[in-house]
Each structure stands twice: as structure tokens, then as C-alpha cells.
Amino acid sequence: FWLKPAQTTSQNLPFRAQPAAMADDDQPKKRTFRKFSYRGIDLDKLLDMSNQDLMELFRARQRRKFSRGIKRA
User: Fold this and answer.
1) What is the pTM of this model?
2) Whole-angstrom distance, CA of residue 62 vs CA of residue 68
3) Region label for 48, one of left (φ > 0), alpha (ψ between -120 and 50) or beta (otherwise)
């Protein structure tokens, strides 16, 4: 009573081992990036702000560290 080796079909292959022919289209998917915002202010506006305006958004600990100068640990 010898066991037969399992047939390899596309159904029992792991996801990353699926043949390329099973892809939906030849075109790559368009990546959608998440828009970054800090406390409701978009990244573009944050980059344009002065350090003083930016400090007003921070909490006390960050304001204190920012005012004393940011040092690398």
C-alpha cells in the first residue's frame, strides 16, 4: 500500500508560488499612499511652518525638548 505523491496544482500551491499566468492583468496595481497629517494638518503645511508655529502643535514634553535643542541619543 504505497501512498501516491500529491499532485501539484495551482489550488494547493502557497500564495507566493502561484503561477504568473493567474495574475489578473499584466499591468501592475497602482499603489495608493496614505496622506500623512499631524493633528489635522497636512504634511505640506507642516513643512512650510516655522519652528515656532510647529512647537505650538506639540505637547509639553516635545516642546521642551525642541526648545532645548534636539540631540541624538
Assistant:
1) 0.46
2) 10
3) alpha
All 3 cell numbers of residue 33?
499612499
Half-sphere exposure of 41 (CA within 13 A, CB side): 13
* pLDDT, tens digit (0-9, with 9 covering 90-100), for 14-42: 555 555 555 555 778 888 888 889 998 99
- Which residues are within 8 A (CB) of 67 and not within 5 positions of it... i.e. 6 or more apart? 55
Checking phi first, is residue 39 left (phi over 0); if not, alpha (psi -120 to 50) or beta?
left
Residue 46 CB neighbours (<10 A)? 15
